[in-house]
Amino acid sequence: MYIYSGASQPEESSHVDDQEKYEQFMARIEAGEKIEADDWMPDDYRQALIKLISMHGISEIMGALPEKEWVPKAPTLKRKLGIMAKVQDEMGHGQLLLRVAEDLMRPYGKTRGDLMDDLLSGDLKFHNVFHMPTKTWADAGMVGWLVDGAAIISQTNMLDASYGPYQRALQRICQEEVFHAQHGEAIIMALAEGTEHQRQILQESLNRWWSALLMFFGPKSADTTGSSKQDIMIKYRIRKSSNEELRQAFLDKYLPRVFSLGLTVPDETAHYDEEKGEWVYQQPDWNEFKQIIKNKGPRSKERLRLREVAYENNRWVRQALTSEAVGS
Amino acid sequence: MMPVETAEEAKKDATYLKALKDLIYQCADDDFIISFRGSEWLGLAPHIEEDVAFSSITQNTMGHAVMFYSLLEELGEGKADALAHERQPDERRNAVYLEKKNGEGSYLGEPYYDWALTVVRNFLYETFKKVKLKAITNSSYQPLANVAEKVLMEQPYHLSHWRIWVEQLLASTEDARSRLEERLEEAWYAFGDVLELGQYATEMEHFQLMIGEDELKELWLEEVKTTIKDLPNGTPKKQLGSGREGEHTADFDQALEVLSEVYVSDENAIW
Ligand SMILES: [Fe+2]
Ligand SMILES: [Fe+2]
Hints:
The complex is a heterodimer of chains A (328) and B (271).
Chain A: H1 19-30, H2 43-68, H3 77-105, H4 112-121, H5 137-156, H6 164-192, H7 196-215, H8 222-225, H9 230-235, H10 243-260, E1 271-273, E2 278-280, H11 286-296, H12 300-313, H13 315-322
Antiparallel strand pairs in A: 1-2
Helix pairs in contact in A: 2-3, 3-6, 5-6, 5-7, 5-10, 6-7
Chain B: H1 7-10, H2 14-41, H3 48-74, H4 80-85, H5 96-99, E1 103-106, E2 109-113, H6 115-136, H7 142-170, H8 174-190, H9 201-206, H10 213-225, H11 250-259, H12 261-265
Antiparallel strand pairs in B: 1-2
Helix pairs in contact in B: 2-3, 3-7, 6-7, 6-8, 6-10
């Protein structure tokens, strides 16, 4: 999942269109039934889904950019094949999700082109981790291992989402994510067991990514950044757990592995509190987080610029594809 | 000529071995460099569906390069990874036309890549690859013939992907058509060395490793004509040089620098 609970306020539906329909709808999702694209749904449900899924989809696509920096540079033939397959999958996830979002946007007359415009104008946000720089090959491994690792945790949390088309897309995405995490882990293991230089770029990479990874799941509560969408997501059975629960699951799964590789995290206070049964860690700078997702992160401008150049540069191709045939 | 079943057998005849290795280097290096150029496009294609399809082709093509490098490894040329990452430009046998940059700028910033070049280049190359590999399925070197069979199981999809692009763009706007035609003109000045078999062409034919150059060219042109009716006159020249002879351009230096950047950053590393 690539959405923040709390970046902006979802527009409240002004009224419940039809109380009876609404009650039937709630009864269906509470019974575990799936809602399909053509079914009746409340406005705020549709809007929350559009926001969630378009952000998820566009993040898959923007997420290909930091990794793609290393695709042509991958150091062996095997790694070249592995990272090509991985980034291709991410583009595929983007494609799959944008189609789901497009169906939801149809009643509003919006299309994929509008999403691209929204991305370039800054109205459509993409995930904080993809605003970060990748400086060495270790970052390519770190993205696969821990960013995809974090994605698996938040996406599996929605595997039972009430909206059928999204839920089915996630089933497929999660299957592929498992391979991504393995791909990332293999790169990391080679570095961890490698030369001094390799271990050094690995540790530096983890230091660089640590706070972005903590931010991945969004702030603990609305107080941190102003508002929260966690509640509506849970009410409508789109997700199950809170941001903090997901972050704890992530720390629980990965910190022991990090330490067993002889790596450290740039937070000396990080430890497991047996009594409370949770990980204690220093909060990342949530003001910085707010800046990052406003496209004021370290690489936000460059990544958007890449998309913009590609978009402008290929305009003639899109025009050609939509034109009437002029004969050959 | 009797089929040669193994690398050990091939090594018994020095002339045979030389011609064989040169042919495999051409196949491996062509696929390697065109796949590299494809990988620079990742995330920048005209639309998302194309990004997914193109990167799948790029990935398969890199897989083909790996199969060819592995054949060379069996023939005692060294590790496949070293062959891909360490060889100097004058040792590389890929055609010069295939190493040409995708356009101005870099894949890391301000990539003014030209889709018309990519469509024309890939269509012409995949057509050539199909003809060449078909001929190689009858090669006297069995391990190579087997790889050709395997590659031909997925390569037709690549060719048809680019053929559809050529057809669609030629039949669309004036702008698209003239962009494509310009790149075709250019190809007619530079595609020539793709169609060559290098200094051992005669031996390749003699040992039944491969058909002759003239036949290869003819078959290629015939096949291209089934898709594009109005081709430039004559057959392509090789004004950028001949990669089959180890000649390469500054564009190739850029490619090598990028693709081996991490590989050379730590000589003792296992990645
Ligand atoms: Fe993904
Ligand atoms: Fe992934």
